[in-house]
Specification:
Two copies of one chain form a homodimer. Chain A has six helices and six strands. Chain A is an alpha+beta fold and 156 residues long. Chain A has two domains: 79 residues, Arc Repressor Mutant, subunit A (Orthogonal Bundle), CATH 1.10.10.10; 52 residues, no CATH class. In chain A, the strands form two sheets. A two-stranded antiparallel ribbon of chain A has the order 1-2.
Amino acid sequence: MAVNVAGAGQTEQTCSIARTLEVLGERWTFVILREALAGVTRFADFREQLGVAPDVLSDRLATLVAAGVLEKRPYREPGARIRYGYHPTPAGEELRVVLGALQQWGDAHRPLDGGPTVERRAVDDGRLLSVAFVDDTGTAVPLDRVAFVKTAAYPS
Amino acid sequence: MAVNVAGAGQTEQTCSIARTLEVLGERWTFVILREALAGVTRFADFREQLGVAPDVLSDRLATLVAAGVLEKRPYREPGARIRYGYHPTPAGEELRVVLGALQQWGDAHRPLDGGPTVERRAVDDGRLLSVAFVDDTGTAVPLDRVAFVKTAAYPS
């Protein structure tokens, strides 16, 4: 998707969707982030989960660290050398909203026969959640009452 | 991102994030959808807004129509032949949540000096909105109380 952004020309420089996809759009990056948000932290576990080549995994983890989405933390297993785990930063946790929105749309409009493979639920009581627009009181606003409004900073 | 999905292997077949990006990830598709959700309907207007080559634009609009995200509607200007405009379907409107989530993250974590170029506001009174997880009562749930839970359909 970094290609898309380049391909989409000057307009895209100021598009925050494009800037987000510059971070996430690289091959493998999205699924690595998905695993990280599911609690995977160790290089070997990312490899096992995704079957991704080590050099590619190293590169993509570095991209996510450089983007401030993941952070490296040292850990040491008994008798082993110090290794580094990869943990979502607060900015990385905020990407949960993006992944949740993508999942929700895919489940609704690209469904599988077997049903959703992942659900979004409240930690407290397991109730099902959805991703929606909310106002500053934390109340959901229907989609047909939402507008994307260009600001003065919008390129003319 | 269709490439990513292929690249990510078997696991990705069942990932609704990947399935969504199969629709949206193609070069140009995202920005065309962004314009469509901003009210652009006419081929010539997409071209003018994006500076995209006609053959590419035709192909991407066809992708979005085939995916049920946009629908073609005939229109005729005085003295002109019948042409077709492209309008978001209900499924396309639901992608507003995805685009809103991407915008929100980019504005927060990839900010521009000039500030956001697009804001998400309520149609009724212009109050600022955000994209968040909500429960079935339409009440926002804090990010740290949200879990992604694998279902029985999750590939083992």
